[in-house]
Amino acid sequence: MASAVSMPAPVCLIENIPSKGLLVNQTALQILSGITQPVVVVAIVGMYRTGKSYLMNKLAGKKNGFALGSTIQSHTKGIWMWCLPHPRNPNQTLVLLDTEGLGDVEKGDEKNDCWIFALAVLLSSTLVYNSMNTMSQDALSKLHFVSELTKLIKVKGDSNGNEEEEEGEDTQFVRYFPNFIWTVRDFSLLLKRDGKNITEDGYLEFALELKKGLNKDAFNYNLPRQCIRNFFPSRKCFTFVAPVSGGDIVRLEELPEAALDLVFLQQSQAFYNYVFEKSEVKKLKGGQQVTGRMFASLAKTYVETINSGLVPCLENAVISMATIENQEAVKEAMEHYQSEMNGLVHFPIGVEELSELHGKCEAEAITVFMKRSFKDDDQQHQNVLQDKVQQRYKELCKKNETVSEEACNKLLEALTAEMETKVSNGFYSTPGGYKLYTEDQEKVVREYQGRPDKGVKVRKDLPCEIKAYLSNMRRMCDVGNKMCEAY
């Protein structure tokens, strides 16, 4: 069964340190590396002090966890991660990502905001954009980061000359980008248009309508809207009334649910249900599901690329991740082969039996490799595995020969011990000794041939072996002459 994880509290996944830039937290990587289940990744972005952390805590089923804070200072720095069992799908792990607030006056670095937003897009399968009050022009203008995505993210690496190059840029991005949810907090307007009731989704589409015209004002107005429409064809909207009134908002995480507005609770439950039921497993091109281990590799690759001054490339990140995954797949499969062979093979062993066990364990090892490997289209890593398996099999065959030879020598030594004593005592040097010698030798041969577990180095011409063995015994030369006389 694939392994899951349940973290008691969030940890920082990507630290944002002004003097050092973005850093991937090693503790978070270790946690992710232990998750072999597919991950559903929900990230939330938005302006600072808009209550993003509260929504994420509720998705985690907790009153607190992600820091809310109650002042004008933004508490979340970088990107924080909380891995939990998926509440609806036991075979999946839910990964919640809470990002630092965009537009933080203390930070004053718009480029930094752009990278945080881009990383949230790159890493998530569902992206939640959280804003306050209404979907006004101001709210949309603050979402200008979406218009920067084509500058901050590359879909492909070097040109491969395939059909994707003929596709539009937006079409390529859509293949990789997450589903989009816009949440509007403290919403107090009536959902009406031209006197008719509209849904929350209708409100979103109304806010994303384009303005006619080709002048600069129309261009600036339309740009973020057009980008959202193009990059996020799957989009949803949820509005929330204020959870409490007045000064109680600063104690939101301390208040029991009974103290919160009933409509807010109903709206929140609808949001949670949608996220849990509709959010998909993070996937790569071709539908490959991303596990926690793979997610860790993606995060590390993206941050390293940003810190190097380059633009994160989806294709290159996948290639890098595939290399790491396939190397680990080879290691895991090889460990399985060795563990199984060590448990099944007891030296010395017959050639056919050893070969049969090798074939069985090799097939299992390839199955283990195939379950974890990714994009090993040219079978480069599978060939590496098979080479390693064959090398280990040769070593086992060599060891089998050595152990077999030692076992045969030990057995022969034990079976001829009595004859050795008789040789030393001159037993065969008496009249009739040759006949007695022949009888004892035949007895040794029968016992030797009847003993199991001799392996591949069993003697074929045992009488000669016995003679050769006893020839080193004391007085052997005299025995030959005397036995002939006695005969």
UniProtKB/TrEMBL annotation:
The keyword Membrane does not apply. InterPro entries: G_GB1_RHD3_dom (IPR030386), GBP_C (IPR037684), Guanylate-bd/ATL_C (IPR003191), Guanylate-bd_C_sf (IPR036543), Guanylate-bd_N (IPR015894), P-loop_NTPase (IPR027417). GO terms for biological process: innate immune response. It comes from the Eukaryota. SUPFAM superfamilies: Interferon-induced guanylate-binding protein 1 (GBP1), C-terminal domain, P-loop containing nucleoside triphosphate hydrolases. Keywords: GTP-binding, Hydrolase, Immunity, Innate immunity, Nucleotide-binding. One of its GO terms (molecular function) is GTPase activity. The keyword Ubl conjugation does not apply. Residues 36-280 form the GB1/RHD3-type G domain. Belongs to the TRAFAC class dynamin-like GTPase superfamily. GB1/RHD3 GTPase family. This is GB1/RHD3-type G domain-containing protein. The lineage of its organism: Eukaryota, Metazoa, Chordata, Craniata, Vertebrata.
